[in-house]
Amino acid sequence: MPRFRAETRAWLEANCPPAMRTRMPEIEQVAGGKKAQWVRPEQKQWLDIMAAKGWTAPTWPKKYGGGGLSNDEALILEEEMQDLGCRPPLQGMGLSMLGPVLLEYGTEEQRQTHLPPIIKGEIRWCQGYSEPEAGSDLASLRTRAVLQGEHFLVNGHKIWTSNAHRSDWIFCLVRTDPAAKKHEGISFLLIDMADPGVRPRPIRLISGASVFCETFIENVQVPAGNLVGPLNKGWTIAKRLLEHERKGIGGIANRRAAKFEIPVEAVAKQFAGEQDGKIADPILRERVAAYSMDAHAFQLTRRRAAEEAEAGAPPGPLSAMFKLQGTELNKRRYEMLLEAEGFQGLGWEGEGFTEDELRFTREWLRSKANSIEGGTSEVQLNIIAKRVLNLPD
Amino acid sequence: MPLILSDEARMVRETALDFFRERSPITALRKLRDDNDPIGFSRDLWRQMADLGWTGFLVAEDDGGSAFGMTGLAQVMEASGRTLTASPLMSTALLGASLLSQGGTEAQKAEYLPPLLAGEHIFALALEEGARHAPSQIATTAEPDGAGYRLTGQKTFVLDGHIADTLIVAARTETGITLFLVPGAVAIRTRLIMLDSRNAARIQFDNVRLGPDAVLGRPNQGAALLDVILDRARAGLAAEMLGSANEAFDRTVQYLKDRKQFGVAIGSFQALKHRAAQMFCEVEITRSAVLAAVSALDSNANDAAALVSLAKGKANETLYLCGNEGVQMHGGIGMTDEHEIGFFMKRSRVAQATFGDTKFCRDRYATLMGF
Asked: Domains in chain A: how many in total?
């Protein structure tokens, strides 16, 4: 392992363009796809270098173009990238959600078709889960897919489809048996958004950004071969994918490249003043300490879970809390930042505010979605109560 | 710095859980309280604990211990927290053994460690003087007197101080703090009857004459030694509090399943489910902090002191939460003396104040982390 670490580090140092070892503004996140927009050429260059090595999907099998690394090796790669400040070359739902699900439930043909373009960043995926009438009660979804010979005919209305307007394909939960109980008539379907019947419409959010869409699906014909898993057994896959999603959202604080992040403590010192190396306002200082301690203890809990998993323990009840705690802590982080900044945390745009101040304001608003998307905090509490504590319904 | 237990530590944990469950359930603490027991713990139980080797976890093998370390002792303390067992684990196995091992001369170790290890000699650290934990605010003085010293001052909240054979007293000397080994019998001792039915005393020293050999560690250098040992105490207590919090939580979840109102188990109500789930998270997060702290102490890690402050701070909050919620969710029965859940809430307040309340821990954490 020390040898793998040394080799990985040397390779990253030699191959990661210097421009990709800087703090990554949100608009420079790379998600790939046919509609990808490149702010600078090094983004594409870095993606191609990493994809060629399979390190955009480090643990996926080599035969699909993945890195073929063990979990331990992938962790080392992640640590070395963090340490050197390397940006993730590619992010998105293909890598974090659909890929793992296809590896578990997909046919060989589906894997051969879809995994390589995900790894290379050629196809961008989005998630067709929520509907206007199906939020926390996801299983009440009504988008209908009717099997007609070799095709499904799909009609419905999805919402909160992140980046649908920039995506190429959408993985959808659809109702295939309206007569069955609500969890038993759902299937998992892959839909090509090139079909003119799929129309995404961006929604403007409180942060001013429009990453979420409504997606209308009208009379779209989907080949029957795009069904993942058995017909009407999509709920199992849906839940599995949600676990991957929650892991990603809950890890939001973890994934932040610590190297470039401005700590809450530093912001508090900047705005409240510093005395003998301490935040001058004792009340703010205690509140920052309380937050920092909770964040620290949470990081230790993530590490403990990883160590338990490595030691061969089955995925324990700990993972159930990561989405809940990770998102609530991330929200608290931004509340602390705004509180520390005072007036300077209240700007919307224009002069009078620094880039970071404006960014924190927008990110504060964005962070509010963390405890809603992928299952609200209340849903996570229900899950812990039911699955971990075995409290009755 | 591992956050999972070794096989050895796991075995200690299992042994300790069985031991306290069988030999010292909460009924034992209740009996000590109701009998106004003059000692406040069972000497017989303490000898059994010594026989299991728990007094020697922080003592070197050359001195008759096992040097198993804080991770091992934390397992015992956590298990004792589940049953709220009153014993000299903190005063003697942790504080006494550590201070003697790290500060004692060969002669002092030879004199004191064998009876300590055997469970025959009780120690107590006489440190606090004010209303809250303040290890640097010491007014008790030890004035030079011939070759020795004269000790004057008042100490309070001395754990097991009413019964200790030997007190380890922190006193101000010429240029700093010095620790002294003082026979318990020479002090004026007032037992404090505490909320949690555990043992503490107020102790007065009135021109007590001490020989030069009473000094533990180097004269005027006691603060540094105390600093190191108090971190062990905080981590050990955090482990004990984790055990108490976990037990209060387990009992409360069980009650939510058993208690029926409106024809259903009250655990089916979402208002209670969510709070129970929150408690679960806090207990598990605290467990990680405690494991990190004891592991860091055992490996002399640079961030050990910060991790200890984190662990004690989190344990304070979590036991407070589980104690309060335990009583509330038990409803009326939780208010009765007959039910045991109230013992956890009472213990939470005393344990919180011991060796650093939440405010103290936050301040220390922030200072150590550079803000």
From this structure: 3
ipTM, two decimals:
0.96
Instruction: State the pTM of this model.
Output: 0.92
Question: What beta strand segments (E) does A184-283 contain?
Answer: 186-192, 198-202, 212-223, 227-228, 274-275, 278-279
Strand, coil or helix: A222: strand
Question: Which CATH number is B66's domain given?
Answer: 1.10.540.10
Domain co-membership, B213 together with B293 = no
Is there a single domain that holds both residue B164 and residue B233?
A: no
A vs B: CB pairs below 8 A:
121
Between CA A228 and CA A128 the distance in angstroms is 14
Residue A317 contacts B where some CB pair is shorter than 8 Å: yes
Contact A191, A170 (CB under 8 A): yes
Give domain status of residue A116, yes or no: no
Single-letter amino acid code for the residue at A156: G
B370 touches chain A (CB under 8 A): yes
Contacts of A384 in chain B (CB under 8 A): 277, 280-281
* Selected residue of A262, A292, A301 to mutate for chain B interface (largest B Cβ count, 10 A): A301
Domain termination residue (choose one: A91, A116, A149):
A91
Closest CA to B299 of B6, B62, B71: B71
Residue from the list A301, A307, A384 with its beta carbon closest to the beta carbon of B4: A307
CA A135 to chain centre: 18
pLDDT tens for chain A, residues 1 to 393: 789 999 999 999 999 999 999 988 888 999 999 999 999 999 999 999 999 999 999 999 999 999 999 988 988 898 899 889 999 999 999 999 999 999 999 999 999 999 999 999 999 999 999 999 999 999 999 999 999 999 999 999 999 999 999 999 999 999 999 999 999 999 999 999 999 999 999 999 999 888 899 999 999 999 999 999 999 999 999 998 888 888 777 665 454 456 677 899 999 999 999 999 999 999 999 999 999 999 999 999 988 988 888 787 766 677 779 999 999 999 999 999 999 999 999 999 999 999 999 999 999 999 999 999 988 999 999 999 999 999 999
Asked if A389 lies within 8 A of B278 by C-beta distance, the reply is no
- Tell if the CB–CB gap between B284 and A307 is shorter than 8 Å: no
Domain match, B37 and B101 both: yes
- Range(s) of the domain holding residue B359: 223-368
Instruction: Find the helix or strand (DSSP H, E) in which B280 lies.
Output: helix B270-298
* Six-digit token string for B60: 């070197």
Whether B275 is covered by a domain: the verdict is: yes
Domain residues for the domain of A173 are 125-231
Sequence-ordered list of residues with C-beta below 8 angstroms from that of A181, at least 6 positions apart, any chain: none
> Do residues A17 and A56 both lie within one domain?
yes
Determine whether the interchain pair B268/A392 forms a contact, defined as Cβ–Cβ distance below 8 Å: yes
